[in-house]
Amino acid sequence: MTVVAGYLAGKVGLSGLHLAVRTARTLRTSLTVATIVPKPWLTPSRARIDAEYEQWADHLAADSAKEAQQHLDKVADGIEIDYCHRAHRSVAGGLIEVVEEVDAELLVLGSLPSGGRGQGQVVIGSTADWLLHSSPVPVVISTRGYRGHTGKLSRVTCAYSAIPDAVDVVRRCFQSAKRFGVPARVISFAVRGRTMYPPEVGLDAEDSILDAWASQARENLENLKTDGVVGEDVVLQVVTGDDWQDALAAADWEDGEILALGTSPRGEIHRVFLGSRSAKIIRHSPVPVLVLPS
After folding, report:
1. Is there a single domain that holds both residue 140 and residue 182?
2. Are residues 11 and 57 in the same domain?
């Protein structure tokens, strides 16, 4: 088993490498840094342009490995690191090939360095979005500017929608926490939203309904203990906010914590399926996000 981290020079920052080091150290395993270079759609020929293209791709892979190694030599003491590259028509497809070839346990990605959001939030590009829907293994995405390569992960928080169908998500989150060797907690997020109710209803009514929802969520959370899904010492919380950013920011995060999400399985397809709620949680999370395939 190993942890795979995708890295491409000039395209992503170092946040994913920092998270990959911390994850590999927590799991007591090795790290594989994978660079996926573009592969021509047309069948390669012996023409000069093909040779020049291959040379460019080789240089890109070598530069990426060199850049990653220069940084990891400073922060990844004690971790065995391999570097590899693949030519593929899509970055996501190439990363999945590497994951399967090396029998990876996790795939780690860095947030995009751009996106108009402040440091500390998750910014997903098209590659990460595709992988969240297609990866056969859990995907961990760093926040922008993530650091913290020293030490290990400290806790896994499971985002729970507080409905019966999501109980399996809690079980899978706790299995991940056990694998990491860290404690876990469960949080349900209650968000008012901009258009929760018509203006004529009034804020008092909105608050009343939101409080009622939160009360029901707390009851459902307690059922996790009653039904033996989690232990008596597990922290259960309901966090409310006017929007997703407020709710996520109010959750009292620890250094080294990650937020875990998952979905219920659909048939025999073992992949990640994300709804709009999960996407909003990911986008506003102030800590790295672990997305578990069903």
Report:
1. no
2. yes
